[in-house]
Amino acid sequence: MKRDEQIRLLKHLIHQLDSGTNLDAGVMLRAPADVYASPQRAALERERFFRDYPQMIGMSGDLPENGSFLTRDDWGVKILATRGKDGQFRAFLNACRHRGVAVEDQVRGKKARFVCPFHAWTYSSEGDLVGVPKADHFGDVDKSCRGLIELPAVEKYGVLLVHPQRDGRIDAESVLEGLGPDFDNWGFQDYVHMGGDVYDMPLNWKLAIDTFGETYHFSSLHRNTLFPVFHGNVQGFDHWQRNHRMILCTREIDAMRLRPESEWKIRGPAFPVYWLFPNVMFNVGEHMVIVVRVYPHATEVGRSVSQISFYLDPEVAHTDDARLAPAEAARTFGQIIRDEDYVAASGSQRAADSGMQDSFVFGRNEPTLHHYHNTYNRELGLPPLEAIDG
Ligand code: FES
Ligand SMILES: [Fe+2]
Fold first, then answer.
1. With respect to CATH, is domain 3-52+174-388 assigned 3.90.380.10?
2. What is the rounded end-to-end Cα distance, in angstroms, of the chain?
3. Cβ 287 vs Cβ 310: under 8 Å
4. Distance from residue 34's CA to the centre of ligand 2 (Å)
5. pLDDT tens column, 59-115
6. Which of 78, 116, 132 to mutate to test the pocket of ligand 1 (most atoms within 8 A of CB)?
7. Which atom of ligand 1 is least distant from the CA of 120?
8. Which of 141, 249, 361, 386 has its CA 20 to 30 A from that of 78?
9. Which residue has a Cα nearest atom 3 of ligand 1?
10. Measuring CA to CA, which residue among 349, 346, 374, 342 is closest to residue 38?
11. What are the backbone angles phi and psi of residue 241, rounded to the nearest 5°?
């Protein structure tokens, strides 16, 4: 993020703190509860957002070297991603061209060859079929036509994008609209993968995402965890067509503001959270980013899987002492999401499932949720959420 932008956003937070104000969307919105519980809606979302929309599968640091690979199984289709000998990021259906068995089961590693466990057909990092055992018995396989099925894949601003359809198109600038310059500025392409976690929880994927959308809850739900570190009910918000950026405010800002403006910086005193529509949040700390990718469960509407990944600034990632604090902060942050946000929001799921509470409310101080849900509606061809008076 450019320096003058950092100063502008920090001054905005300070103004909110001093004036006791927060963002104000001007209206409250009525959020129908059945969007979290309807099987028809879940089927529509799956088609539109997870089977026909570019998917963010990881960061450049997930494929750190030529020959690195990564597998994903997040939307019902198994993916094998590689960085070839040429350094190029590619993505394939993780399915052997003989009888479809996954050619790689490990989540990540480094390999020059992928050997199918069934009959040992062998593929290169570039997806070429390079070996068929007992070919004289099997038959005359034209290897040039039997490489792994390749999917559109683009690496941009440190982000790995894959289109779930073979003939899909990825316009990375459009997908990452608004986020690219900041990601570039943070040097995300050099961030180092340091681990992660998986939370399989009883709440719709959008309820999981909604928990990231406001700081109104910090002084209540996170009273003993995040609230001592963050100012609640204060935040910045900028949006583009589908994506947006929230700026959370930490208590480090109280000391920062006493120092000369030339020493101010946004990471630390504030905490940018970038939303990549429809299901990814990048939570940016001083030396780390916590990426949260949320997916609907394969069959249960009221269940979702959050894939949490931690990445560290290369400046600290390779130093034992320096990486301890950000790595610990990332782990703690993840646990708070799981144990506090997702537990609370699984209560919202029960209410939605009851069929008796027909709606929830997004407040004037929750403009991020307004933007997210109205973008969601627009992408599904639905009207915006209804404004309400009370
Ligand atoms: S299914 Fe892969 S070698 Fe037979
Ligand atoms: Fe929270």
1. yes
2. 38
3. no
4. 22
5. 999 999 999 999 999 999 999 999 999 999 999 999 999 999 999 999 999 999 999
6. 116
7. 3
8. 141
9. 119
10. 349
11. -60, -55
Cα distance between residue 283 and residue 291, in whole Å: 6
d(CA 282, CA 330): 12
What amino acid occupies position 367? P
DSSP of 131-188: E-TTHHHH----GGG-SPPEE-EEEETTEEEE-SSTT----HHHHTTTTHHHHHHHTG
DSSP conformation class of 120: -
Q: What is the CA radius of gyration of the chain?
A: 22
**Mean pLDDT of the chain, nearest integer:** 96
The domain made up of 55-169 is a member of CATH 3.50.50.60: no
Tell whether the model's pLDDT for residue 390 goes beyond 80: no
The β-bridge partners of 330 are: none
- Structure confidence by residue, pLDDT tens digits, 265-293: 999 999 999 999 999 999 999 899 999 99
CB-count burial class (<10 Å; 0-12, 13-18, 19+) for 47? exposed
Say which residues have a Cβ less than 8 Å from residue 262's Cβ, sequence separation at least 6: none
Query: What share of the chain has pLDDT > 70, as a percent?
Result: 100
Q: What are phi and psi of 202, to 5 degrees?
A: -80, 65
**Ligand 1: which residues within 6 Å by Cβ?**
96, 98-99, 101, 116, 118-121
DSSP 294-328: EEE-SS-TT-EEEEEEEEE-HHHHT-HHHHHHHHH
All structural domains of the chain with their residue ranges: 3-52+174-388, 55-169
How confident is the model at residue 333, as a pLDDT?
A: 86
